[in-house]
Amino acid sequence: MSEKFELRGKLAEANLTSNSGFAAEIDRSQPSDVVVKQTLRRSCLKNSLIFSFSLIGQVGFATALPLVIFGILGRYLDKIYNTGHWFFFAGLLIATIQVFFYLRYIVSRASERVGKIS
Predict the structure, then answer these.
(1) Element (H, E) at 2
(2) Nearest Cα to 89, choosing from 78, 79, 98?
(3) CB count, 10 Å around CB of 69?
(4) Whole-angstrom distance, CA of residue 31 vs CA of residue 1
(5) What CA–CA distance (Å, rounded) separates 102 from 47?
(6) What is the pTM of this model?
(7) pLDDT tens, the chain, 118 aa long
(8) Crossing angle of helices 2-13/32-81, nearest 10°?
(9) How many structural domains are present in the chain?
(10) Which domain holds residue 66?
């Protein structure tokens, strides 16, 4: 009985109502605690999908922006000092190192969040 109230409390915390798009797909002929469990499962799926897309966006920006910025800066310095492509390659090397450490930060933060959800 207490599990039923706990599930209903979690449903209220998630601010889910029967007007939600995914709640309409739930079979209402089943007992209410089963309906609550189905709704919570769909809510977790929706949150994990949003989390996945945000993680993909963070990784994309964390990879592309430094490479482009440091590459353009290196190319600009190569034109000013007429050094061939040395500053360009140095910029790419610096960007690669920066991307490595920032991706480690993103992954550690994401793993902490996944640990909190589980």
Answers:
(1) helix 2-13
(2) 78
(3) 13
(4) 13
(5) 24
(6) 0.60
(7) 455 445 445 545 544 444 444 444 555 566 677 666 666 666 676 677 888 888 899 999 999 999 999 999 999 999 999 999 999 999 999 999 999 999 999 999 988 887 776 5
(8) 40
(9) 1
(10) 2-117
